[in-house]
Specification:
The chain has 219 residues and is mainly α. The chain contains nine helices and no strands. The protein folds into two domains: 153 residues, Four Helix Bundle (Hemerythrin (Met), subunit A) (Up-down Bundle); 56 residues.
Length: 219
């Protein structure tokens, strides 16, 4: 790909939908778990942990590959970029709180841990919504103006490698595609390796549909 090509930043909007949707749903899913149902708590807790881990990796990628080149090129927007970094720090603190609370609740399924965890996820979701909204409205135009497609693509390549478990990687692809239009899904899958596209078509979509039914059912 030419280094002068304009970055396709809509990919970021699609990825953001995953974190917005899942962190928006999770407080309700957590609160619905019956006290003492450790099996269900462990299942929802693992899903939460996977989302939080992916979000950590997403933001670490931006910290390493997005903010430094923008600070070097979009010199008139340094205050905005530093605000993005500050929002990352605040969100990291909120996610760390979830990481502390989730294992205890998954192990005991008691009410106090459940309620504290649901509140922590709501708090993180609020911070995330503000950050991602501002990032989409103000940062992505700067990316298209100042960064090359090659620089931008490194961020996506790093994100694709962040999930080591092949099954969970396929499930995360399902999360990405869940709210895609047919055109968005076609364009996103077109950039995937051919074996991944085949795997998604043969087993991935069915596996993801089953996973969604299992995670989102009422307790």
């Amino acid at each position: 790909m030419s280094t002068t090509a304009v970055p396709d930043t809509h990919e970021m909007v699609i990825i953001h939908r995953v974190f917005r949707r899942e962190l928006g749903l999770l407080p309700g899913l957590i609160s619905q778990v019956t006290v003492g149902d450790t099996g269900r708590a462990a299942l929802v807790g693992e899903h939460l942990t996977d989302i939080v881990s992916s979000l950590h990796h997403h933001h670490e990628g931006e910290d390493d590959l997005l903010w430094p080149p923008l600070l070097a090129t979009a010199t008139l927007e340094k205050d905005l970029i530093h605000r993005m970094e500050s929002q990352h720090a605040a969100l990291s603190t909120a996610l760390d709180q979830i990481d502390k609370l989730a294992p205890a609740w998954a192990a005991t399924a008691n009410q106090a841990d459940r309620d504290a965890l649901a509140t922590a996820v709501r708090d993180a979701s609020t911070i995330l919504e503000e950050h991602m909204g501002e990032e989409e409205q103000q940062i992505l135009p700067l990316v298209r103006q100042y960064l090359t497609a090659e620089q931008w693509n490194k961020l996506g390549e790093r994100g694709a490698k962040s999930i080591e478990d092949k099954r969970k990687r396929l499930l995360f692809l399902g999360m990405i595609l869940e709210e895609c239009s047919p055109e968005e899904e076609r364009d996103f899958l077109k950039k995937m390796p051919a074996p991944v596209r085949v795997l998604w078509k043969v087993v991935g979509r069915r596996a993801y549909d089953g996973y969604v039914r299992m995670i989102r059912r009422s307790s």
